[in-house]
Write a structure and sequence with these properties.
Strand order of the largest sheet: 1-2-3-4-5-6
Bound molecules: zinc ion
Oligomer: single chain
Distance between the termini: 59 Å
Number of strands: 11
Radius of gyration: 18 Å
Structural class: alpha/beta
CATH superfamily: Ribonuclease Z/Hydroxyacylglutathione hydrolase-like
Length: 304
Amino acid sequence: MSLKYKVFLHSYLGFRSTSTLFYGERDAILIDATQLLSDAHRMVAEIIPMRKNLTHIYVSHFHPDHHFGCEVIQHAFPRAKVVALPSVVKDVVFTSGHKLDTWSIDRMGPETPKATTIPIPLAQPSLELEGDEILLYDDWEGDCINNSVVWVPSLRTLCATDVAFDDWNVWFIESNVERRKKWRVALERLRQFGARVVIPGHASEQSMALLRDTSREYTSCIDWTLDYVDFYEEVYNTARTGEELARLIRNRYPAVKGNDFTIDWLARLLFPKSCPDSFVPLPGKPGEIFLNQFGKYDGDPPRE
Ligand SMILES: [Zn+2]
């Protein structure tokens, strides 16, 4: 039997991240594990009736919306190994305490695990699923340093994870002018896989309708993200206040709801003095939140 896949879209509060289950006749491998415990439980409730032997949970990068749910999934599938590429394991180790602190805020606290599950480092950049190869590539620029992407040649399907998005407000909080140049290059490089389907790291119900029809090609998330990154660069250069920045983004993408609260966060970080109190508060103090694996903040410096 040739492999199949199923994409899960997580909740609004869970940043609308995606997980992808690749499966054969008996076995299955899950790519990424959600941030919120409730999202992980919902996904488990869908996977259990599929009666598959989950062998691995693969973590694509250190952002918690891709691994905080591991403990729930592993509880349901105790034989599944949580794995990642060695560079990503290191990133998760270095950020685990800090990310737990950042996200233990009011509305997300009860949804956050008590401890981070540290993945096992893979000896090789690949996994095997019923004789088919799943190839793993790290060092991809996306919404953080060192994303990884997942390529299944037999399905010509690529999990772009947090390099590409669809119908979702892109997370620019940890990027700066230089890193966005590399991000554009990474988006163009995604095309070189020649994928039939590119699964974005975050999406909307609308994009899921396209992804659920596995008979059709779907790669438009690459163009969608490139367009958003280019547009943001213009806004970043022209906006003079946080209100103007948020207004310009919302005017351009009025129907995009996923991750909309982080537009306020971005505005607060770039324009800390002039943002109105009505903007959604940050989950901690600037300089102490959204740190990378080296304990540094990667975003553009404040504009005022
Ligand atoms: Zn993400």
